[in-house]
Each structure stands twice: as structure tokens, then as C-alpha cells.
Specification:
The chain is built from eight helices and six strands. It is α/β, with parallel strands linked by helices. The strands form two sheets. The protein has a four-stranded parallel beta sheet with strand order 1-2-3-4, with helices on both faces. Helix 2 packs across helix 3 (74-85) and helix 7 (188-202) packs antiparallel against helix 8. The radius of gyration is 19 Å and the shape is globular.
């Protein structure tokens, strides 16, 4: 796809005259063409995600009442979209994406947005990223934030969660929020939180018990690391 180097390109910058591009440039290549026609790339991503749930539901070994979604960064974008639009998602975890458009743009000129993260007419219609979690306020949602995120500011994640909390309180849903000391991406404490979250949500389901038994055994053998961050100069090691 566009944005990826050719298969025979050496993996070094400038070698043999090749130029290696960011993996998200292919999103922009397609997204900008669609925006010229008033269509968002997010629509095509969401369609594929919904079809994926259709497939999962059709499999005899899948519990259709225990479907969840988890993702980070671009995956956090996808999990946010799917969880907001498809009620079959019983539990949703999204990392390093949730924020508000206002804080994104104040923090970084233009905001941190790949093609699928740009919503045609969204701001004009009063839509915001926080709406993606607020619209599922009768369900279960986990928002994972990293304190030194280089793409989506932690302040934006906290603001989005604060906006959504009243809706969850009113409609009886569950909103779990956790902030890790890290930059952009998953780290051990967030991965542990994800495992614990889905165990709590699906432990009573057909396959949930065995999954959570394995997780609890792991947890008894591994020191919890939420408070084990070691700051060395400007770097954070967890």
C-alpha cells in the first residue's frame, strides 16, 4: 500500500537512494482523496470492523455475548469507533487516543490526526472525540492514558473522561480510567490493566473463567508495577 517501502528496499534511511516513510502516510494518501469527496476514511474502517464482528458471531466457538475490543493509538481509534457504533461490543478498551479536539489542537498545531482520525464536518456538527465514549454510557469502557504521550495529550484524555462521567453515572455503565507513566504506546502496567479489565468483564462467560485463572496465576507470580516507574534524566523506564 501507499506509504510503505517497496519489498526489496533496504531497511536503512537513504540506502540505495530509497526513502522510508511513516507507516501512517498510506492513511493520508487515501484519506485526503476521500475528504475531497466529502467522505471520511473512518467510514471504511468502521465498515470492516463491523463485518469482523459479523464473522466472529458466526463462529461456533465464539461467545457472541462476550465480544470485546482493545487497541492502542490507531488501534485505539478503531476500538473507539467500533465500540461507539456497534452495541455488540460489551467491553471496550482504548489506549493513547482519547482526547478532545480542542485540546489536541491547542497542544499541537492542527492536532494529531491520521486520515481516519479526521471527521468531515464533525466539528461543525458539534461532535467531539469524547462523544465516542459517552455514547456507550450504559456499557463498559476502559480508557488508558499515558502521562507523556507524544501524539495525544494526557490532558485531553482526562478532559474527555470528565465530560463522559455524568452520562455513565446516569445510565449505569462502567468507566475505568488509568494513567501510566510512559510516552505513546502500551507498557506493562497498561497491559496488566487490560488483562484484568477483560477478566472482570468476561469471567462469568463460557471461556472467561479459564482466561482469568491464567491471569490471576500470572499476577501472583509477577510484582504489580504501577508504582515501579524509575525516572532517569528525561527517560522513563518501567
Amino acid at each position: 500500500p501507499e506509504g510503505e517501502p517497496s519489498p526489496d528496499a533496504p531497511w536503512s534511511s537513504g540506502a540505495s537512494g530509497s526513502t522510508l516513510w511513516s507507516s501512517t502516510l498510506q492513511h493520508e494518501f487515501i484519506g485526503r482523496q476521500l475528504l475531497l469527496n466529502g467522505v471520511g476514511l473512518m467510514s471504511f474502517w468502521l465498515h470492516d470492523e463491523v463485518v469482523s464482528l459479523d464473522l466472529l458471531e458466526s463462529l461456533p466457538f465464539v461467545n457472541a455475548d462476550a465480544l470485546g475490543v482493545v487497541g492502542c493509538s490507531g488501534g485505539g481509534t478503531q476500538s473507539s469507533y467500533l465500540a461507539a457504533m456497534d452495541p455488540r461490543v460489551k467491553a471496550a478498551s482504548m489506549a493513547c487516543y482519547m482526547s478532545t479536539f480542542e485540546i489536541d489542537r491547542l497542544w499541537k498545531a492542527g492536532g494529531a490526526s491520521d486520515g481516519e482520525q479526521t471527521w468531515p464536518h464533525g466539528i461543525r456538527l458539534g461532535l467531539d472525540k469524547s462523544d465516542l465514549i459517552e455514547v456507550r454510557a450504559n456499557a463498559s469502557t476502559q480508557v488508558l492514558i499515558t502521562a507523556d504521550d507524544t501524539c495525544f495529550p494526557a490532558a485531553g484524555g482526562w478532559a474527555a473522561v470528565d465530560e463522559a462521567r455524568p452520562a455513565y453515572s446516569a445510565l449505569g455503565g462502567s468507566l475505568e480510567v488509568y494513567t501510566a507513566v510512559w510516552h505513546h504506546g502500551w507498557v506493562l502496567p497498561t497491559r496488566e490493566r487490560i488483562s484484568g479489565y477483560f477478566c472482570d468483564e468476561f469471567a462469568s462467560t463460557k471461556y472467561g473463567y479459564s482466561l482469568c485463572t491464567v491471569y490471576e496465576h500470572y499476577r501472583t507470580l509477577t510484582m504489580r508495577s504501577e508504582n515501579a516507574a524509575l525516572i532517569v534524566g528525561n527517560n522513563t523506564v518501567v
